[in-house]
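Internal QA ticket QA-208
Title: Verify multi-chain structure generation after dependency bump
Assignee: T.L.

Test input:
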Amino acid sequence: MSTGEIKIYKDLMGENDKWAGNIRKMRRENGISMINIIGSPGCGKTALLESMIKKLGEVSNFAVLEGDVETTNDAVRLKALDIEVSQLISGGACHLEAKLVHNAISDLDLEKIDMVIVENVGNLVCPAEFDIGEDAKVAVLSVTEGEDKPVKYPLLFQEAKCSVVSKMDLLEHLDFDIEKCISNIKKVNPRLPIFKLASLTGEGVDDWIAWVQEQLENAKKSSGSS
Amino acid sequence: MHELSLCKTIVDTVLEQMKKHDLPRGSLLSTKIDVGAMRQIVYEQMQFAYEVLTKNTIAAGSELDITVLPVIIKCNSCGWKGETDTIMAYCPECFSVDTIMLQGKELTLEKLEVR
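Actual output:
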Protein backbone atom coordinates (compact mmCIF):
# COMPACT_ATOMS: atom_id res chain seq x y z
CA MET A 1 0.00 0.00 0.00
CA SER A 2 1.68 3.23 -1.10
CA THR A 3 1.35 6.44 0.83
CA GLY A 4 1.32 9.95 -0.54
CA GLU A 5 0.65 13.43 0.62
CA ILE A 6 -1.64 16.30 -0.24
CA LYS A 7 -0.03 19.68 0.41
CA ILE A 8 -2.43 22.34 1.68
CA TYR A 9 -0.61 25.21 3.49
CA LYS A 10 -3.73 26.84 4.85
CA ASP A 11 -3.51 29.55 7.50
CA LEU A 12 -6.04 28.41 10.08
CA MET A 13 -6.67 32.00 11.13
CA GLY A 14 -7.37 32.98 7.53
CA GLU A 15 -11.14 32.94 7.74
CA ASN A 16 -11.18 34.94 10.98
CA ASP A 17 -8.64 37.42 9.62
CA LYS A 18 -10.72 37.97 6.50
CA TRP A 19 -13.62 39.18 8.67
CA ALA A 20 -11.21 41.26 10.75
CA GLY A 21 -10.08 42.92 7.51
CA ASN A 22 -13.69 43.69 6.59
CA ILE A 23 -14.18 45.34 9.98
CA ARG A 24 -11.10 47.53 9.48
CA LYS A 25 -12.33 48.60 6.06
CA MET A 26 -15.74 49.52 7.45
CA ARG A 27 -14.14 51.49 10.27
CA ARG A 28 -11.70 53.32 8.01
CA GLU A 29 -14.52 54.49 5.77
CA ASN A 30 -16.26 55.99 8.79
CA GLY A 31 -13.24 57.20 10.80
CA ILE A 32 -14.10 54.94 13.71
CA SER A 33 -11.50 53.68 16.16
CA MET A 34 -11.88 50.41 18.03
CA ILE A 35 -10.32 48.96 21.14
CA ASN A 36 -10.56 45.39 22.38
CA ILE A 37 -10.44 45.16 26.18
CA ILE A 38 -9.13 41.83 27.45
CA GLY A 39 -8.63 40.56 30.99
CA SER A 40 -9.70 37.95 33.54
CA PRO A 41 -13.27 37.81 34.87
CA GLY A 42 -13.63 40.47 37.56
CA CYS A 43 -10.46 42.42 36.72
CA GLY A 44 -12.41 45.67 36.25
CA LYS A 45 -13.11 45.79 32.51
CA THR A 46 -16.66 47.13 32.88
CA ALA A 47 -15.63 49.69 35.51
CA LEU A 48 -12.86 50.88 33.18
CA LEU A 49 -15.44 51.34 30.42
CA GLU A 50 -17.76 53.25 32.73
CA SER A 51 -14.98 55.61 33.81
CA MET A 52 -13.94 56.46 30.26
CA ILE A 53 -17.49 56.89 28.99
CA LYS A 54 -18.30 59.23 31.90
CA LYS A 55 -15.24 61.33 31.02
CA LEU A 56 -15.51 61.31 27.22
CA GLY A 57 -19.17 60.58 26.56
CA GLU A 58 -20.06 64.27 26.26
CA VAL A 59 -17.77 64.84 23.27
CA SER A 60 -17.43 61.43 21.63
CA ASN A 61 -19.98 58.81 20.70
CA PHE A 62 -19.22 55.29 21.87
CA ALA A 63 -20.73 51.96 20.98
CA VAL A 64 -19.96 49.07 23.28
CA LEU A 65 -19.97 45.42 22.26
CA GLU A 66 -20.27 43.31 25.39
CA GLY A 67 -18.87 39.83 25.03
CA ASP A 68 -20.15 37.46 27.68
CA VAL A 69 -20.63 33.75 27.82
CA GLU A 70 -24.12 34.27 29.23
CA THR A 71 -26.45 37.01 30.62
CA THR A 72 -26.87 40.65 29.66
CA ASN A 73 -25.88 42.00 33.11
CA ASP A 74 -22.93 44.07 31.91
CA ALA A 75 -24.89 45.45 28.97
CA VAL A 76 -27.70 46.56 31.30
CA ARG A 77 -25.12 48.18 33.59
CA LEU A 78 -23.67 50.19 30.69
CA LYS A 79 -27.06 51.12 29.19
CA ALA A 80 -27.51 53.32 32.24
CA LEU A 81 -24.80 55.58 30.76
CA ASP A 82 -27.01 56.26 27.77
CA ILE A 83 -24.77 54.74 25.11
CA GLU A 84 -25.25 52.20 22.36
CA VAL A 85 -24.63 48.71 23.81
CA SER A 86 -24.85 45.43 21.91
CA GLN A 87 -24.64 42.17 23.77
CA LEU A 88 -22.64 39.42 22.10
CA ILE A 89 -23.39 36.18 23.86
CA SER A 90 -20.68 33.76 22.89
CA GLY A 91 -22.76 30.82 24.14
CA GLY A 92 -19.97 29.06 25.96
CA ALA A 93 -17.15 30.18 23.68
CA CYS A 94 -14.18 31.56 25.56
CA HIS A 95 -13.45 34.42 23.16
CA LEU A 96 -14.99 36.57 20.45
CA GLU A 97 -14.25 35.92 16.79
CA ALA A 98 -14.23 38.48 14.01
CA LYS A 99 -17.34 37.26 12.18
CA LEU A 100 -19.60 37.72 15.21
CA VAL A 101 -18.11 41.17 15.86
CA HIS A 102 -18.51 42.08 12.18
CA ASN A 103 -22.21 41.24 12.31
CA ALA A 104 -22.68 43.36 15.43
CA ILE A 105 -20.83 46.35 13.93
CA SER A 106 -22.86 46.07 10.73
CA ASP A 107 -26.01 46.66 12.78
CA LEU A 108 -24.72 49.96 14.20
CA ASP A 109 -25.39 53.41 12.78
CA LEU A 110 -21.74 53.99 11.85
CA GLU A 111 -22.14 57.66 10.99
CA LYS A 112 -22.98 58.41 14.60
CA ILE A 113 -20.07 56.55 16.19
CA ASP A 114 -16.51 57.66 16.99
CA MET A 115 -15.31 54.56 18.79
CA VAL A 116 -16.32 50.93 19.18
CA ILE A 117 -15.24 49.42 22.48
CA VAL A 118 -15.29 45.66 22.71
CA GLU A 119 -15.35 44.17 26.16
CA ASN A 120 -14.13 40.68 25.42
CA VAL A 121 -15.12 37.52 27.30
CA GLY A 122 -13.36 37.42 30.71
CA ASN A 123 -10.28 35.37 29.84
CA LEU A 124 -6.56 36.09 29.51
CA VAL A 125 -5.79 33.31 27.09
CA CYS A 126 -8.08 32.75 24.12
CA PRO A 127 -9.12 36.34 23.23
CA ALA A 128 -5.43 37.19 22.73
CA GLU A 129 -5.28 34.72 19.84
CA PHE A 130 -7.98 36.35 17.73
CA ASP A 131 -7.79 39.50 15.66
CA ILE A 132 -11.25 41.08 15.67
CA GLY A 133 -10.35 44.06 13.50
CA GLU A 134 -9.44 46.38 16.38
CA ASP A 135 -6.85 49.18 16.45
CA ALA A 136 -5.56 48.04 19.82
CA LYS A 137 -5.90 45.25 22.30
CA VAL A 138 -5.88 46.54 25.88
CA ALA A 139 -4.55 44.09 28.48
CA VAL A 140 -6.20 44.65 31.86
CA LEU A 141 -4.66 43.18 35.00
CA SER A 142 -5.95 43.97 38.49
CA VAL A 143 -3.82 44.13 41.63
CA THR A 144 -6.04 41.42 43.13
CA GLU A 145 -4.45 38.94 40.72
CA GLY A 146 -0.89 37.63 40.62
CA GLU A 147 2.01 39.86 39.57
CA ASP A 148 3.33 36.97 37.47
CA LYS A 149 0.31 36.96 35.12
CA PRO A 150 2.20 38.75 32.31
CA VAL A 151 4.85 36.02 32.17
CA LYS A 152 2.28 33.25 32.60
CA TYR A 153 0.16 34.58 29.74
CA PRO A 154 2.72 36.35 27.56
CA LEU A 155 0.78 36.38 24.30
CA LEU A 156 -1.81 38.91 25.48
CA PHE A 157 0.86 41.32 26.68
CA GLN A 158 2.78 40.91 23.43
CA GLU A 159 -0.28 41.51 21.29
CA ALA A 160 -1.54 44.47 23.34
CA LYS A 161 -0.95 48.12 22.42
CA CYS A 162 -1.36 49.23 26.02
CA SER A 163 -1.90 47.69 29.41
CA VAL A 164 -3.92 48.78 32.42
CA VAL A 165 -3.14 47.78 36.00
CA SER A 166 -6.51 48.27 37.69
CA LYS A 167 -7.88 48.52 41.26
CA MET A 168 -4.79 50.44 42.43
CA ASP A 169 -6.88 51.77 45.35
CA LEU A 170 -6.75 48.27 46.88
CA LEU A 171 -2.98 48.02 46.75
CA GLU A 172 -2.40 48.95 50.40
CA HIS A 173 -4.56 46.02 51.54
CA LEU A 174 -2.76 43.44 49.45
CA ASP A 175 0.50 41.59 49.24
CA PHE A 176 0.94 42.60 45.59
CA ASP A 177 4.37 43.64 44.38
CA ILE A 178 3.54 46.37 41.87
CA GLU A 179 7.16 46.89 40.81
CA LYS A 180 7.53 43.20 40.07
CA CYS A 181 4.30 43.27 38.06
CA ILE A 182 5.54 46.21 35.94
CA SER A 183 8.89 44.52 35.40
CA ASN A 184 7.11 41.32 34.30
CA ILE A 185 5.09 43.29 31.75
CA LYS A 186 8.29 44.93 30.48
CA LYS A 187 9.99 41.55 30.23
CA VAL A 188 7.33 40.41 27.79
CA ASN A 189 6.81 43.71 25.99
CA PRO A 190 9.34 46.41 26.89
CA ARG A 191 7.61 49.12 24.87
CA LEU A 192 4.09 48.66 26.18
CA PRO A 193 2.53 51.78 27.76
CA ILE A 194 1.28 50.91 31.26
CA PHE A 195 -1.50 52.82 33.05
CA LYS A 196 -1.86 52.27 36.78
CA LEU A 197 -5.33 53.37 37.82
CA ALA A 198 -8.40 52.93 40.01
CA SER A 199 -11.64 53.33 38.05
CA LEU A 200 -13.74 53.82 41.17
CA THR A 201 -11.68 56.62 42.74
CA GLY A 202 -10.47 58.14 39.45
CA GLU A 203 -6.82 57.77 40.44
CA GLY A 204 -4.63 57.64 37.32
CA VAL A 205 -7.63 57.61 34.99
CA ASP A 206 -6.64 60.85 33.20
CA ASP A 207 -3.53 59.36 31.61
CA TRP A 208 -5.56 56.44 30.31
CA ILE A 209 -8.21 58.83 28.97
CA ALA A 210 -5.47 60.75 27.11
CA TRP A 211 -4.41 57.49 25.44
CA VAL A 212 -8.02 56.79 24.42
CA GLN A 213 -8.31 60.31 22.97
CA GLU A 214 -5.17 59.67 20.95
CA GLN A 215 -6.85 56.57 19.45
CA LEU A 216 -9.92 58.64 18.57
CA GLU A 217 -7.78 61.29 16.85
CA ASN A 218 -5.72 58.74 14.92
CA ALA A 219 -8.85 57.11 13.50
CA LYS A 220 -10.24 60.47 12.39
CA LYS A 221 -6.92 61.36 10.73
CA SER A 222 -6.54 58.08 8.87
CA SER A 223 -10.06 58.28 7.46
CA GLY A 224 -9.30 61.68 5.98
CA SER A 225 -12.28 63.23 7.73
CA SER A 226 -11.72 65.86 10.37
CA MET B 1 -10.69 26.10 24.96
CA HIS B 2 -10.42 27.84 21.60
CA GLU B 3 -8.86 24.62 20.34
CA LEU B 4 -12.32 23.39 19.35
CA SER B 5 -13.03 26.31 17.02
CA LEU B 6 -9.56 26.05 15.46
CA CYS B 7 -9.97 22.31 15.05
CA LYS B 8 -13.30 22.81 13.32
CA THR B 9 -11.51 24.80 10.61
CA ILE B 10 -8.96 21.99 10.29
CA VAL B 11 -11.53 19.19 10.02
CA ASP B 12 -13.76 21.16 7.60
CA THR B 13 -10.74 21.69 5.32
CA VAL B 14 -9.65 18.05 5.62
CA LEU B 15 -13.10 16.75 4.64
CA GLU B 16 -13.30 19.22 1.76
CA GLN B 17 -9.91 18.07 0.44
CA MET B 18 -10.78 14.39 0.82
CA LYS B 19 -13.95 14.87 -1.20
CA LYS B 20 -12.06 16.88 -3.82
CA HIS B 21 -9.47 14.10 -4.24
CA ASP B 22 -12.13 11.40 -4.03
CA LEU B 23 -10.51 9.72 -1.03
CA PRO B 24 -12.45 6.95 0.69
CA ARG B 25 -12.93 6.44 4.41
CA GLY B 26 -9.78 5.03 6.01
CA SER B 27 -7.41 6.45 3.38
CA LEU B 28 -6.33 9.41 5.51
CA LEU B 29 -3.46 8.49 7.84
CA SER B 30 -2.64 11.86 9.35
CA THR B 31 -3.24 15.60 9.18
CA LYS B 32 -0.09 17.65 9.75
CA ILE B 33 -0.24 21.11 11.29
CA ASP B 34 2.43 23.61 12.32
CA VAL B 35 1.88 25.56 15.54
CA GLY B 36 4.14 28.42 16.64
CA ALA B 37 5.29 28.18 20.26
CA MET B 38 3.76 31.61 21.01
CA ARG B 39 0.30 30.21 20.33
CA GLN B 40 -1.37 29.15 23.53
CA ILE B 41 -2.58 25.84 22.20
CA VAL B 42 -3.05 22.89 24.52
CA TYR B 43 -1.93 20.06 22.27
CA GLU B 44 -3.88 17.33 24.11
CA GLN B 45 -7.07 19.39 23.74
CA MET B 46 -6.34 19.87 20.07
CA GLN B 47 -5.91 16.11 19.62
CA PHE B 48 -9.12 15.45 21.55
CA ALA B 49 -11.08 17.97 19.51
CA TYR B 50 -9.74 16.41 16.31
CA GLU B 51 -10.80 12.96 17.42
CA VAL B 52 -14.30 14.15 18.34
CA LEU B 53 -14.81 16.16 15.14
CA THR B 54 -13.58 13.42 12.78
CA LYS B 55 -15.64 10.69 14.44
CA ASN B 56 -18.27 9.27 12.06
CA THR B 57 -16.70 11.08 9.08
CA ILE B 58 -14.51 9.77 6.24
CA ALA B 59 -11.50 11.11 8.18
CA ALA B 60 -12.24 8.93 11.23
CA GLY B 61 -9.25 7.06 12.61
CA SER B 62 -6.68 9.53 11.25
CA GLU B 63 -4.23 11.30 13.51
CA LEU B 64 -3.50 14.95 14.09
CA ASP B 65 0.24 15.42 13.84
CA ILE B 66 1.41 18.67 15.48
CA THR B 67 4.82 20.23 14.82
CA VAL B 68 5.76 23.00 17.25
CA LEU B 69 7.81 25.82 15.71
CA PRO B 70 10.09 27.57 18.22
CA VAL B 71 10.11 31.34 18.63
CA ILE B 72 12.81 32.95 16.49
CA ILE B 73 13.63 36.62 16.87
CA LYS B 74 15.96 38.97 15.02
CA CYS B 75 17.60 41.92 16.74
CA ASN B 76 17.59 45.15 14.74
CA SER B 77 20.36 46.61 16.93
CA CYS B 78 23.11 43.98 16.78
CA GLY B 79 21.78 41.64 14.11
CA TRP B 80 21.53 38.59 16.42
CA LYS B 81 19.08 35.99 15.17
CA GLY B 82 18.00 32.83 16.93
CA GLU B 83 15.58 30.87 19.07
CA THR B 84 14.38 32.38 22.35
CA ASP B 85 12.02 31.68 25.14
CA THR B 86 8.39 32.70 24.51
CA ILE B 87 8.50 35.40 27.17
CA MET B 88 11.75 37.03 26.10
CA ALA B 89 11.00 40.03 23.95
CA TYR B 90 14.52 41.45 24.07
CA CYS B 91 17.79 40.37 22.45
CA PRO B 92 19.73 37.91 24.64
CA GLU B 93 22.97 39.24 23.12
CA CYS B 94 22.75 43.04 23.53
CA PHE B 95 19.46 43.35 25.53
CA SER B 96 17.98 45.67 22.93
CA VAL B 97 14.17 45.75 22.79
CA ASP B 98 14.27 46.55 19.09
CA THR B 99 13.54 43.02 17.91
CA ILE B 100 11.16 41.39 15.45
CA MET B 101 9.61 37.97 15.71
CA LEU B 102 10.37 35.92 12.60
CA GLN B 103 8.65 32.74 13.75
CA GLY B 104 6.40 31.65 16.61
CA LYS B 105 2.83 32.64 15.82
CA GLU B 106 2.13 30.23 12.96
CA LEU B 107 -1.00 28.16 12.78
CA THR B 108 -0.98 26.32 9.48
CA LEU B 109 -2.58 23.21 8.08
CA GLU B 110 0.41 21.86 6.17
CA LYS B 111 -0.54 18.59 4.51
CA LEU B 112 -2.45 15.35 4.60
CA GLU B 113 -0.74 11.99 4.59
CA VAL B 114 -2.83 9.47 2.66
CA ARG B 115 -2.61 5.93 1.39
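Spot checks passed. The mean pLDDT of chain B is 92.
Status: verified.
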